[in-house]
Protein: Oxidoreductase
Organism: Brevibacillus aydinogluensis
Amino acid sequence: MNKAERIKRMRVPAVDPALARRLPPGQVLTERFPILHEGEVPVYDLETWTLRVFGEVDREVTLSYADIMAMPQTTITCDIHCVTRWSRFDNRFTGVRFRDFLAAAGVTPRGRYVMLHGDYGYTANAALADLERDDVLLAHSFDGAPLTDKHGWPLRLIVPHLYFWKSVKWLRGIEFLNENNPGFWEQNGFHLNGDPFREERFSGEALPIPEDEWEKKEFD
Ligand SMILES: Nc1nc2c(c(=O)[nH]1)N[C@H]1C(S)=C(S)[C@@H](COP(=O)(O)O)O[C@H]1N2
Ligand SMILES: [Mo]
């Protein structure tokens, strides 16, 4: 067989259908783990760190880091999708399922919406139903090791099925509400819900997102 024949017979690796199903529209796959956030990386003392659950609940509670580490632990492998167009497959996070967390903390929410509060002042909103899925975690570890400080140590939320801006790093508060109020990015032109497969990036007109915006950021 000559070269031309061989090339003709070559199977062109068209987009792997499995990959096409996993990669939301307008996203680019990366193997690196970009670091994206507003503001400074907080410094903590785990002895004084707390997570507060408040708002529309039957009782408000404040938990210590030891309380959370004593709760049932889950490891998930998930894909993550940032609105600045990078996606990363097969990320392994360990922590406490949001659902299990509420049960273990002994909190019954009355409100159907949640405002997630991170240090220093970052917020993201979500419907409670979105946080009750199997793969929503309060994560403390990535790939079997504690999160690095820039990726949200000691505790971050992981909501794989929504754009990654909902996955609040340095999580300090979970506030239940009766209405779906917008968080930080949601007040700044981004979608209230943020489903990457429906390309729910913006609340109104498309904002310009340079395709390589995240390429200029830090990685680890
Ligand atoms: N507290 C806090 N959490 C945050 C952010 C932030 O600015 N502050 N940025 C969000 C955005 S836009 C993304 S894409 C992810 C990035 O997480 P990573 O730095 O671990 O990749 O964190 C999300 N969580
Ligand atoms: Mo993002």
